[in-house]
Amino acid sequence: MNISQYNDIQIGDQVPLLTLPAVNRTTLALYCGASGDHNPIHVDIDFARKARMPDVFAHGMLSAAYLGRLLTNWVPQQQIRSFSMRFTGITQLGHIPTCTGTVAEKFEADGEKRVRIEIKCSNQYGEEKLAGVAVVALA
């Protein structure tokens, strides 16, 4: 964990990058078991093709979990004040998720020093899959 101090942070600073292994069928099966989300579009190629998809694809919440890991690799979970995102693309098999965060604002609220971070999860081609914002309290 790489905890930063509020006074050392500048707008535009980057949260340490998080790159994950390529999404494969095992990743999806393991996520199904861990999350309880057994939607067949994520594990059954015949079902996915009937839905007019070329193959199964990753759960959106898997990428959301990766963004959560980006944040908790940087600060302890209890310092996260808000965390929101929107889904902007589908993560296909073979995509390599990369999560990034950029400090967009420094401010004080409720007696705490906080930063607003713009976060996103993209694939190896730079195609955005999730975009969001987190607010983190720093010492």
From TrEMBL:
Residues 23-95 form the MaoC-like domain. GO terms for cellular component: fatty acid synthase complex. GO terms for biological process: fatty acid biosynthetic process. Signal peptide: none annotated. SUPFAM superfamilies: Thioesterase/thiol ester dehydrase-isomerase. Pfam families: MaoC_dehydratas. Transmembrane segments: none annotated. GO terms for molecular function: fatty acid synthase activity. PANTHER family: (3R)-HYDROXYACYL-ACP DEHYDRATASE SUBUNIT HADB, 3-HYDROXYACYL-THIOESTER DEHYDRATASE HTDX-RELATED. This is Dehydratase.
